[in-house]
Amino acid sequence: MSPEEWTYLVVLLISIPIGFLFKKAGPGLKRWGAAAVGLGLTLFTCGPHTLHSLVTILGTWALIQAQPCSCHALALAWTFSYLLFFRALSLLGLPTPTPFTNAVQLLLTLKLVSLASEVQDLHLAQRKEMASGFSKGPTLGLLPDVPSLMETLSYSYCYVGIMTGPFFRYRTYLDWLEQPFPGAVPSLRPLLRRAWPAPLFGLLFLLSSHLFPLEAVREDAFYARPLPARLFYMIPVFFAFRMRFYVAWIAAECGCIAAGFGAYPVAAKARAGGGPTLQCPPPSSPEKAASLEYDYETIRNIDCYSTDFCVRVRDGMRYWNMTVQWWLAQYIYKSAPARSYVLRSTWTMLLSAYWHGLHPGYYLSFLTIPLCLAAESRLESALRGRLSPGGQKTWDWVHWFLKMRAYDYMCMGFVLLSLADTLRYWASIYFCIHFLALAALGLGLALGGGSPSRRKAASQPTSLAPEKLREE
């Protein structure tokens, strides 16, 4: 593990006892105490580069105040433009930010764009009320008022997920501050249920990364190995990549659970990133609060089992970095300048690559996803429904195997980063996934396979197991 990875791990682990301290605190202590801890962590890890996050926050707040009815698009343009400047600092002869500054900036971009969208929704709802002449009751997910500058700063620097996620909306943050009877919300038992696989994943990461180091792929000697060895190598590289993020995101979720952050009654049917989808009245007494069943789906960032064992490429995206996937679907995919599922996915993956950074490997990997999506949807709709139940089961196993190899292949671009290293590795295995996807797409089109928007969801498998296993 690098020094940066050790620092991330320490930050994640100390967030857990800090969460228990804040859980039963009042709204004021939660707001300003959590912001003080987050700002302290930012200053400690980023130093003077903390100024970048402050400039981004102030710019977004100014846009919200100036144009509340259109601030979402403006905030998106502002924060993504600042990311370009932020990543071009070395080219401009300015000090290069630390990796921790980059992590803070990435999560802050998501939070500020979401905040602007929530303020815009509030402004539009208020205008409708004025036009209709009567006031409606509280609307699910709507903010009570526009946050002040200090409230925006407290949300932005809240220590929860400040470097690793999960992403959460301002409405989720407010619900935590105003949580009724927080002592009745379970923390310890859900935390232990969530945390138990993390040590195993950590050991598997250390073992796999030691036996199959990524640096070997950059050496000339690697390309003297036989083709099967080169093909196989991407499997343990992606395995180590998954184990690393499983540990980080489980630890981040545990920090939230310790604080009771993102806890909602099960009846609210909360979604990762978005929060409750059904109105659920707050409990009126500690006894009623204690009688409710809660979950932490709002801050759930990874579904390890489904990531590994779902059948389709499309589903694999849904279960990975779940709160960020919600953000991309809500704020990028829905507003994409196209109606086609594949074109919308291409637009979303392009902006996702840009959000991650400017390394060519990101773009090569992310822009391979739409090709895989188009190929699997066309071929599946053309052939799977014609098979017997046994044939469909065999199809799903083959589909799952190819899905995992596609993600192995794309992961190499994500971790190698440079154009030369990525293309050198892909060329050494003859761009097999690209050609396989193109062949599957061509066959699906020839057999009359429908587009993703016309597929029947009922006929699509989601997992190889009859019942999805969950760590909780």
Automatic annotation (TrEMBL):
InterPro entries, per the entry: LPLAT_7/PORCN-like, MBOAT_fam
Task: Write out the catalysed reaction.
Answer: 1-octadecanoyl-sn-glycero-3-phospho-(1D-myo-inositol) + (5Z,8Z,11Z,14Z)-eicosatetraenoyl-CoA = 1-octadecanoyl-2-(5Z,8Z,11Z,14Z-eicosatetraenoyl)-sn-glycero-3-phospho-(1D-myo-inositol) + CoA; (5Z,8Z,11Z,14Z)-eicosatetraenoyl-CoA + 1-hexadecanoyl-sn-glycero-3-phosphocholine = 1-hexadecanoyl-2-(5Z,8Z,11Z,14Z-eicosatetraenoyl)-sn-glycero-3-phosphocholine + CoA; a 1-acyl-sn-glycero-3-phospho-(1D-myo-inositol) + an acyl-CoA = a 1,2-diacyl-sn-glycero-3-phospho-(1D-myo-inositol) + CoA; a 1-acyl-sn-glycero-3-phospho-(1D-myo-inositol) + (5Z,8Z,11Z,14Z)-eicosatetraenoyl-CoA = a 1-acyl-2-(5Z,8Z,11Z,14Z-eicosatetraenoyl)-sn-glycero-3-phospho-(1D-myo-inositol) + CoA
Annotated GO CC locations: endoplasmic reticulum membrane; mitochondria-associated endoplasmic reticulum membrane contact site
Q: Which GO terms describe its molecular function?
A: lysophospholipid acyltransferase activity; O-acyltransferase activity
The principal location of this protein is: endoplasmic reticulum
The record describes its membrane topology as: Multi-pass membrane protein
Coiled-coil annotation reads none
PANTHER family (UniProt xref): LYSOPHOSPHOLIPID ACYLTRANSFERASE 7 (PTHR13906:SF16), PORCUPINE (PTHR13906)
The record's Pfam families line, in alphabetical order, gives: MBOAT
Q: Where in the cell is it found?
A: Endoplasmic reticulum membrane
Biological process terms from the Gene Ontology for this record are: layer formation in cerebral cortex; lipid modification; phosphatidylcholine acyl-chain remodeling; phosphatidylinositol acyl-chain remodeling; phosphatidylinositol biosynthetic process; regulation of triglyceride metabolic process; ventricular system development
Please state which protein family the record places this protein in: Belongs to the membrane-bound acyltransferase family.
Region Disordered: which residues? 453-472
Give the protein's recorded name.
Leukocyte receptor cluster member 4
Q: In which pathway does this enzyme or protein participate?
A: Phospholipid metabolism; Lipid metabolism; phospholipid metabolism
What keyword terms does UniProt attach to this protein?
Acyltransferase, Endoplasmic reticulum, Membrane, Transferase, Transmembrane, Transmembrane helix
Which species does the entry assign this protein to?
Pongo abelii
Q: Where are the transmembrane segments?
A: 6-22, 34-64, 76-94, 425-447
